[in-house]
Prior knowledge:
By secondary structure, the protein is α/β, with parallel strands linked by helices. It has helices spanning 16-30, 43-48, 83-87, 101-113, 134-139, 141-159, 168-173, 202-212, 233-241, 260-269, 287-293, 308-315, 344-356, 358-368, 377-396, and strands at residues 2-6, 34-39, 57-59, 63-64, 74-75, 93-96, 117-120, 162-165, 182-185, 219-224, 249-254, 276-280, 296-299, 320-323, 338-341. Helices cover 40% and strands 16% of the residues. Helix 8 (202-212) crosses helix 11 and helix 9 (233-241) crosses helix 13.
Amino acid sequence: MKVGIFTDQFYPYISGVVTSITMLYEGLTELGHEVFVFSSIEEAMVASCEELKNFNFINIPGKPWPFKGLKDYRYTRHPKRYLKTIASYNLDIIHIHTEYNAAKLAKLAGRKLNIPIVYTLHTLYEDYMKYLSPFFDKHFHNIMFKVLAKAFMGSASKASVVKIVPTKKVLRLASKYYIKGDIRVIPTGIDLTHFYAENFSKEEIISLKNKLGINQERFVFGYIGRTSPEKDIKTLLNAFANLQYKNNAVLLIVGGGPQLEELKQIAKDMQINDKVIFTGFIESEKIPLYYQVCDIFLNASKSETQGLTYIESLASSLPLLVQKDDCIEDVIEDYYNGIYFDGEQDLILKMEQIQKAPTTLNNIKANTRISCEKYSKEHYAASIETVYRVAIEKYKE
Length: 397
């Protein structure tokens, strides 16, 4: 098959959507399919981004959105003029991964070129509306959400033959997002082997700790992911600031995003900036080593659809301490491969307990890697391949 992946998010930016597309691209390619990624990225970035050289990447010219929170995204004027470009690839299937500019082009191509469409809902957008308009989000949240969900998610759903969601939680919310019809639950896969602890020597880990200025005796609480409001990193900072044993610990925050400078200022105002390390953006191929530097992975987000960094952490043999949420009910078993907390005070209590009980942490660590084997990229690609075949047959009918 010739597969066209349409997305508003792609390298050099890193996100769960980009990781999902990368795993799908690699998995489908290994199965013998030809895959093309269509997106809109600034031309200068296309030329300088090394990651893009690993893909059949087609850049659709676009302009930046006039919203501060969407500065990494672009829109294409007159999408019809690019139909000839898309037609030249003779696609058998189109797969929409985001709902905005790329989806508009994908829906047009599907309709005009008679190509069946599959759509994956990756993101629960309610926590992201503030990026479009803080005023309307504050005063007209429900109305704004319904309008946007129907116009974008509902439109992508209507244009697609089969819909994909990553978890049962998202399936339960599908109707709220105007997603109807044939919906399949398929967890996103990752290249688990990329994160295995045996890939890294003790010397490499010590060297990175020294580079980050982390004392080898300190306990390292680690967050890895995008630094943006919906991730609720402020809760992690507040909890760390109130730890009884914070002088023996470090909070490592790995990743870039729109809230990075604000979080640095918050840490400074709390007078914990000497114990909180912000790395900023880190290239994707270097991320696995950062998991090895940590003693436990933290996340307070309630906006995840699956939590790919959670699976990366498990593959890295790193236990998790994360906010209890339906989206990870199939990923984490409490006190087996991770620990749930519920709210900031509970987080503080469990952070302190973990520091005092290394045996508990070691017992959990023994179960992490084996618990994530079902999330391999091979299983993911094979499941999506089946959906494509179903979509093609249903489209013919």
